[in-house]
Amino acid sequence: MRCWPTRSGHHLFTVTVPQLCRLALRLPELLPAPLPLLARHRSHSVSLSQLQVASLLANAFLCTFPRRNSARRVRRFLSPAELPDWSASEARLPALSCHSEGLIEDQLGSLQVDFANKFVGGGVLGDGCVQEEIRFLINPELIVARLFTEVLDATECLVVTGCERFSQFEGYADTFKWTAKATDPSPLDEFGRRSTQVVALDAVHFTQRPL
Which helix or strand (DSSP H or E) is residue 60 part of? Predict the structure, then answer.
């Protein structure tokens, strides 16, 4: 910490860290019961307030959770027997609009895809810094899903509703850097959540599996 800028360091240790500790200590009050696990091969959901998410993130930052080896968040599951036979479908495709500019996270009112690792969040807490990790960094409430979401199967996805964006950025991978705080322009829904839905699904290679 010797090379930490004096002004930033003072704010970190007098404001940020004490607030993190206060949030962490409130966890037994905010979440008196254990979080349910979003297990594989089941469709179920978990609902959390922003304050509950903040307390969970504070505890994660302070490393208070025991290590395991292995917003509303909804896990969707489709059994192999329910998979449609697209080659036999006679349904017409709806109108498709393609855009060469813009970012997924800037598309208000759209279902925003996170091209995820089968382990939700990928390398966001390690050395990853591509599409999924960047999304989890600018919407850090997404990180909490890692606490209770099992590995995704090829026919499963995770739907996260209400995560707020807090950061602006530029670059990608090695050139990625934070640029400024963000004010999320997404309107609030009837439950007071941000009208943002992110669907995390593991990208599947189809090069050897023609449609």
Answer: helix 50-61
